[in-house]
Fold this protein.
Amino acid sequence: MKRFLRDNGLSVAFGLSFLGALVGQAIAGHADFNHRQVLGGGQPVPFWNFLTTSDFAVDVAENWQSEYLQFFLYILATVWLVQRGSPESKHPDEIGHESDEKQRVGRHATARSPNWARAGGWRTAVFSRSLCIVMGGLFLLSWLAQSIAGLSAFNAEQLSQLTDPVSWAQYVASADFWNRSLQNWQSEFLAIGSMAVFSVYLRQRGSPESKPVGTPHDTTEQSG
């Protein structure tokens, strides 16, 4: 167990942090939801009932989809775009998919390479893009979940105001949906862009997200 925790400390720590934050969001969201219920003349709902509401689901899903969109676009963009001096970027001379030899696929694969990296054909082509495929798929699924939960929450509010509910297509084209989405997207783009630029000039000793402390600012694709 001790060795497992050491070898998987990053995923374990962030997994526990995620669960803690999700529980905290549920507790705070439940309190806020019941406060609004009472102000509107309604009855408070039990905690477990709140977890099945569209209000809770849409708040969770809209954050998930923005995170997966951020990583999907960043992974894809860094194939073709570079930031000189950033450890988050490839060297400017290596823009693109790079050679089979550098990527160790096909006949250049080693005995320890993943099977699909050695297989060639469609399997290597899929495996070569599997990270973007999964991240993009998770973004689409969480985006769909957000749109469905958001539609339910939006129509509940419409009915409470004696206004006609809208269809899914109408909601996806609405200002409410895009306001929820874009307020998350802009913060993700700002954060990842700031990281790429700050890492050119600033250091964190021992972190693979930073260059070695004494490395010149214009050195690219080197971490320590």
Remarks:
- The two ends are 27 Å apart (CA to CA).
- The first helix runs from residue 2 to 7.
- The chain has a mean pLDDT of 89.
